[in-house]
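## retry 2 of 3
previous attempt timed out at serialization; input unchanged, resubmitting
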Amino acid sequence: MARFMFGLSFKGAGENASDSAKIEKLIQSLQLLKHPEGGWFAETDRDPLRIPNPFLSKEQQQHAAVQYTAAAAGDDTTRSAMTTIFYLLTPNSPKGRFHRNKGRTVHTLHKGRGRYVLIRTDEAKPGEKARIETFVVGHNVEKGERLQWIVEGDIYKASYLLPDDDGSTESESGLLISETVVPGFEFSDHNFMPANVLPELVSAKQAVELQWLQSSN
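## retry succeeded, writing output
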């Protein structure tokens, strides 16, 4: 893990902050809604093609004890082949708290900067603590910022807004991305990280450092 403290790196961010008129217009233009993870979203495409639900296989039985965000509605034996959303973080709603999806998610940057934090439980052996992967998404590819990134299913992830550049103290337009989930997203395939799980996955010091990314405020 990088040697720095995770956290919002500019003042004026959080629920008491006011979003700019530019951001408010963007929210209205894209018809975004509040997301339970934090931030704003709008589903822009849901493939009409239905495919067999791969999460009903024996390999997925470990999910049985997980408390998912919503119960399955209707026919749970199929999924949309793919779904896509806009997702926006703003100074007023600057973080997406730890959660995971069963499906694979492709993220594409449109504007702004942010930091992603992934807990790589897929790499950890039984009894080991998971590696924390973190990276900046943005348009400065020469400095290693990412324009596109993929998060596999069952990986806990969180994200938060960064200033527009390293010398800035503001985010003028927020962080706007698209997320494409394969197979298509359902809240019955989504869960937030329970409060007691983070200390089990990472070291005690890392758990304290990342605790703020679990809360909804």
